[in-house]
Amino acid sequence: MSLNYLFHSSFYILSFLSFSMQSTFTFSSFYSLSFYFLFTLSFTHLSFFLSFFFLSFFLSFLHPFLSFFLSFFLFSFFQLSLSFTYIFSSFLRSFFLFSLSLFFLSHFSFFHFLTLSFFISFFLIPSFFFSFFLPNAFFLSFLFISFRLFIYPAFLYVDLFNIHSLIHSFHFFLSFLFLSLYKLDKLFFFSSYLISFLSNFLSF
Q: Residue 62: what pLDDT?
């Protein structure tokens, strides 16, 4: 868990530094990182992060150097406070996964359980195509958020095999690759998605 959390922390720091070093607001950067937060963290964490981001954005009009350091220190404290929440939520989530997996294993055979897990996981395969062929980012985010909320209980027990986290990593890597390479200032985003992919791959 410590290695996985280290990689994810690096992702957040890299992403936030990329935000801070940009003097202008770009919708693609905001959309890509918001998309990741909506899939991985709670809305409370997202609201905290957005407050830090907008503070950094408004300060960038005064002085970019001031914005960079202030946002970096604020986000460091934010990460420290999140570490306790992360440990507690991981414990609750593991306990719930264990209870739910016992329920499914007691009512289905192991082969049916594994087949069902793969079947639900690979529902995400259309996301590879939607990310490239649907230009409307608002519709895309609404589609995936709704999809995640409607079958969220299914994702919980699929996570027993860590399948969906790996698929999510491939999805983020592929769908936002063109965002990362679109401008030179997206280099930090490209690195952060690689870190996110490696973190899930090592925990698989």
A: 57
Q: What is the DSSP string of 139-204?
A: HHHHHHHHHHHHTHHHHHHHGGGTHHHHHHHHHHHHHTHHHHHHSGGGHHHHHHHHHHHHHHHHT-
CB 96 within 8 A of CB 156: yes
| 8 Å CB contact between 187 and 180 | yes
Please count the residues of the chain.
Answer: 204
Chain centre distance of CA 42: 10
pLDDT along the chain (204 residues), means of 10: 48 45 39 43 48 53 53 50 47 48 52 48 42 42 42 42 45 44 43 47 43
Domain count, the chain: 1
Range of the domain at 10: 2-202
Looking at beta carbons, which pairs linking 108-116 to residues 24 or more positions away fall under 8 Å?
114/161
